[in-house]
Amino acid sequence: MTHTDDRRAEFLARVERGEKIEATDWMPDEYRVTMIKFMQMHALSELMGALPEKEWVPRAPTLARKLSLMAKVQDEVGHAQLVLRVAEDLAAPLGKGREELVEELFTGQCKFHNVFHMPAPTWADAGIIGWLVDGAAVVSQAALLSSSYGPYARVLQRVCAEEGFHIQHGESICLALAEGTPAQRQMLQDALNRWWEALLLFFGPAETNSPSATILLKYRFRTKTNEELRQKFLTKYVPRIRALGLTIPDPALRYDEEAGRWVYTPPDWSKLKAIARNEGPLSQYRLGLRRLSYEQGRWVREALMAQAV
Amino acid sequence: MDAVRKPGFAEQVPAGPLGTAPAAPAETVRQAPGEAGTAARSERQFRIYEIFVQKDHLSPHVWVGSVAAGGPEEALVLAREQFLRRDAAVSIWAVEQQAIHRTDYADRDFFARETDKRYRTLAGYSQANAERWRKYRRALLDLEQDFVRD
Questions:
Q1: Domain spans in chain A, listed from the N-terminal domain onward
Q2: Which of A73, A207, A260, B7 is 20 to 30 A from A57, comparing alpha carbons?
Q3: Nearest to A264 by CA among A232, A229, A234
């Protein structure tokens, strides 16, 4: 056994004991590289998530709704900054900085979450995003609060607390529509129909045998599989959706008491693959917006950076 | 919006990955965040400030996270935007990350607790004291019962 093998074994034993890893600790390359990639995707997804939301700020029906939506958009950008800071510290020894991490979105080296490639054509979509998309995000992020990577687990505490507000806000929009006119109820149902498949795709394929998924589980960065998280989401939200009198657009959806799990029509996984290649309905449009805002903000960043000399 | 838009900005999009991908790291790399690679790169960079927030005058400043900023003044403004969108506070400290002296997580010996520390704590005394007091209380109760009997 070489010295490095010893260190790897010791590292694995540490995470298996439930110890937390810090940015300054020795770690195997595969841990560092995979964690950076995961956090980079999380951070950039937060940033991209602000885009479909912000489309609705000028069109939100009341001033109160505009204010809460703006608060939410600010939170998402704030989460991106928090997670990016953590990723940046881990990437620093590789000579990789914030700019590279952010710009890999444009080159397609870093993906962003599937739900943010989708259109949000009505106000009910804004509600469904807040309630169910953020609900799905909290299910997966809450499972990461015990992540082996300490700095990430720490920022997630703030992220999850603020996402809790987003869900309440989304619920409030959906409840108002569900209790509204027949046209408003129909708008909510249509939005649910549009988002249901994306919500199932959100958690990724059940068979998590990709190299990075294996590494994430092995080192306890994650402790739950995609399917476990999807089941958790269904358990929490299916009864709530039905309680509002909405119909989930999957006739095969049912809870199998014996197996103790939800049975559902599998979503079209090829859509997830297309989205991963940035070929989703609004992938290029939203990337274009992000690129525009990145370039328009460049002079601000440079003006700030100049003072650092 | 139009005031900050400069013509042609949208076209100046980075064409591809900047430079070549960094070589795979040696697993022996062990640098503190902030110590890393700063010398090799441009001086025009953000600095990292660790942020401490004091929520009221009777509370200590508590570390909440970090921000990337050009200087201390921006760091304080960014910290307010990042960490105080909802919570109230009376003070923020921004400390440049490189200025922080830290212990090494791996140095367990530094935090060794070989000896029993109970003699320094409440718990080291409270139980024994309570048992003793019970005896006195019992005596007191006996007295009261005698009194009632009389």
A1: 3-20+30-306
A2: B7
A3: A234
Residue B27 Cα, gap to closest chain A Cα (Å)? 6
Which residues of chain A lie closer than 8 angstroms to B45, CB-CB? 97, 305, 308
CB neighbour list of residue A170: distance below 8 Å, 6 or more residues apart? A126, A127, A128, A129, A130, A131, A132, A134, A135
- Tens digits of per-residue pLDDT, B11-51? 332 332 322 333 333 443 444 444 444 444 456 788 999 99
Query: With a CB-CB cutoff of 8 Å, which residues 132-191 of chain A face chain B?
Result: 154-155, 158
User: What is the complex's ipTM, to 2 decimals?
Assistant: 0.85
**CB B21, CB A279: distance < 8 Å:** no
Which domains, and CATH codes, for chain B? Answer: 44-149 (3.10.20.520)
> For residue B11, what pLDDT is reported?
31
Scanning A239-298 for CB atoms below 8 A from B yields 291-292, 295-296, 298
**Calpha distance B99→B78 (Å, rounded):** 19
Pick from B25, B65, B69: CB nearest A93? B25
CATH number for the segment(s) A3-20+30-306: 1.20.1260.10
Tokens encoding B149: 């009997």
Asked if the model's pLDDT at residue A32 lies above 90, the reply is yes
